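Tokens for Tryptophan--tRNA ligase, cytoplasmic. Go.
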Amino acid sequence: LLQSDFVLLFCFSNADIFLSLSPLHLQVYMLPQIEKSGVAAEIDAAVQLLLKLKVDYKQMTGQDYKAGCPPSENLIVSNNGPAADDCDGEDLVDPWNVSASSTKGVDYDKLIVRFGSSKIDKELLERIEKVSGQRAHHFLRRGIFFSHRDMHQILDAYEKHKSFYLYTGRGPSSEAMHVGHLIPFIFTKWLQDVFDIPLVVQMTDDEKYLWKDLTLEECHRFTVENAKDIIACGFDVNKTFIFSDLDYMGASPQFYRNVVKVQKHVTFNQVKGIFGFTDSDCIGKISFPAIQAAPSFSSSFPQIFGGKKDVPCLIPCAIDQDPYFRMTRDVAPRIGLLKPALLHSTFFPALQGAQTKMSASDPNSSIFLTDTPKQIKNKINKHAFSGGKDTVEEHRKYGGNTEVDVSFLYLTFFLEDDEKLEKIKEDYTSGALLTGELKKILIETLQPMIAQHQERRKQVTDEMVQQFMTPRPLNYKF
Ligand code: TRP
């Protein structure tokens, strides 16, 4: 035991042995009365446990445990998560935190390597266009959806007339959604249209209750309010099922069965490694990932898929949700189910810069779907981080930097016209276009877009929400 890798602390005031079993820091707190109290067997058990933890550590990280040396970056894929992400000015990306070490934002190429996903390359883009018979969405063309898992398999199957379904979700943490929240839904709507397939949307009101200081009633109310914004994106009611976890978990035996299967096959150690949970996180959080995993399996929706277990699932989501689906893909074969495929997007930057994603709790960090034209104008003029130079003379001389300019970045999301966007880029880089002029273009792009969204949302009645949220068969041909 007295090898250098365990820290022994002798504690005189208490008669217990405390084991604190964080895999990264193994500590044993022991007492002096060991001999007389006959605890040799307990110590032996503790030593065995510690040795087993070393083996687990090696399995999880692929490295030998060494005291005081946190694991380096090359963790094996299924377990690399936030626990390893916060070293040395690295970007931090997990479902609850996103922060980049550079003003250009997160280094997405590095993230692909670290997460073990694949880049959406030219070949895949061409295949998507060929199979769907449509020009790729500008989110794909511009690298906003930049990474994937198993998309080729989805296309292979589709080419053989085997269909698939879409799954995405939203954590309803407040009534107000911002434009960034629409990105996955705008893209999912496009996928639904071009492939003509069913979609399930999970509203994780349970997740928000567990993570935030909100009541169950508030979270459920946000689900309904957010569902209206989602419906306003134009989803087809005959092909779309939106569900609240708080309602659907209790209403669907098959869904709950899949949750339990996942729960049985993932250990606390694994979720610690993937999500960075600690011993003081409530058990609701620890078991929640199984609930986000379950909609990846078609058997969770017997009303839609008639009990079929083998309808492939494609999940469009922001890359911060990937830890959930790494876990899902890891357990799927062990419970006899298909691994879901994924399409990952970059983050929508905060007005203040690409170093972080927008936060619903800071009204000035984002443009909300409820903002008036005037608020949109003021926020952009006041808060949008500029890649321009300090004075007009300098700007004319040296030009602006579109890589960090938030107004330009927003236009890459919302200005569909490729030629216009290219021209703006040229002019801004050369100095011909000033920051104020660039901001004006963005304001004039967003004002009508948000106004149209508000108009469509107004048309969404409570009965329509009810319809979308009722478990029922969907219309699709397989
Ligand atoms: N956890 C996500 C959030 O907080 C919501 C979510 C649930 C989700 N299932 C999903 C997002 C599937 C994308 C894909 O927003």
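Residues 95, 167-171, 202, 204, 207, 292, 315, 317, 321 surround tryptophan (CB under 6 Å).
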